[in-house]
Specification:
By secondary structure, this protein is of the alpha/beta class. 40% of the residues lie in helices and 21% in strands. GO terms for molecular function: ABC-type transporter activity; ATP binding; ATP hydrolysis activity.
């Protein structure tokens, strides 16, 4: 299990920037902590560079084809007419969500995908998960079955929390015995029963969005994954649960898994990732050390 860092990278950065926080450091302590963080990240990245690839993204292009709306040609009636007559729609609009993205991810890496809304981050993860087909001429190659965890990840609303835990574990390839053995640990991690001792007996549709998000994360992170992709799921829950989640990501990374994190929180990215990929308008603008990429992105964002 990875050790929980006494001081997180984002806390050191806030102190350097003169922002208030729960820690106070002398200039000498800040310099030493900063140097230690940089050294540890460089060591992990050097070790990961020799590890086996888990994801190879090669010239990935994703295009959404959107039909015109309204009556006539863009309506269901119009679509049926085209199917019968074998005509194509004259109002199809193509949206290039991802444009020629290429990178390699290796075991032991935790990679943050950053960028504005609509930049192509979530689309890239969906393609890695096999949920979106790439255009001809490019592809995605993975070692094992990637697991995508997003804020809208599906659980069955009419089933109880208890049943969803078991079904979720089975869907990840666990045996019934393994699912039962991990059940209590998942419940404890999610802290679902802290506010309602009977919550696991309630249908998921009775859960708040925060409760459901915590349970989703607890299920997905209950076993070591070859490739775990987390899409904004760290933005849910209270500060305590976010800290738990970030620690679990570090543990997954330490167990030689590969973790992708999509988040608008640069603090979460800095605290869980060693590498960051900045995507803008479907293209990679920068790929490298998490601090260097996050600093460049934040400076660019401030320019408006």
């Amino acid at each position: 299990m990875a050790d929980t860092p006494k001081v997180l990278p984002s806390q050191v950065l806030r102190a350097i920037q003169g922002k208030e926080g729960e820690h106070s450091f002398s200039e000498e302590e800040l310099a030493a902590l900063r140097a230690q963080i940089i050294e540890e990240r460089a060591k992990r990245r050097a070790e990961a560079a020799t590890n086996q690839p888990t994801v190879v993204v090669d010239n990935l292009n994703i295009v959404y084809r959107i039909h015109g709306a309204g009556t006539g040609r863009g309506s269901a009636t119009g679509a049926l007419s085209r199917i019968v007559s074998r005509r194509t729609s004259p109002t199809i609009r193509e949206v290039h969500a991802v444009r020629g993205i290429s990178f390699v991810a290796r075991r032991g890496e935790s990679i943050g995908l950053i960028g504005r809304n609509g930049s192509g981050k979530s689309t890239t993860l969906a393609a890695i998960a096999g949920l979106l087909p790439p255009e001809k001429g490019g592809g995605v190659y993975t070692d094992g079955q990637p697991s995508l965890l997003g804020i809208n990840a599906a659980l069955m609303p009419d089933l109880t929390g208890e049943r969803n835990v078991i079904v979720g574990c089975l869907a990840m390839g666990m045996s019934k015995a393994e699912a039962n053995a991990r059940y209590q640990g998942i419940v404890d991690f999610s802290r679902i029963q802290e506010t309602n001792p009977h919550a696991m007996n309630l249908p998921m549709k009775a859960y708040s969005s925060g409760m459901a998000a915590r349970l989703r994360f607890a299920i997905a992170a209950s076993r070591d994954q070859d490739v775990l992709m987390i899409d904004e799921a760290l933005a849910t829950g209270d500060a305590k649960f976010q800290a738990q989640s970030e620690q679990r990501i570090r543990e997954l990374r330490a167990s030689a898994g590969t973790v992708f994190v999509v988040s608008h929180s640069m603090a979460a990215i800095r605290d869980t990732c060693d590498r960051a990929i900045w995507i803008e308008a479907g293209k990679i603008l920068m790929d490298g050390d998490v601090d260097e990429v996050a600093d460049a992105y934040e400076a660019w964002s401030k320019q408006g």
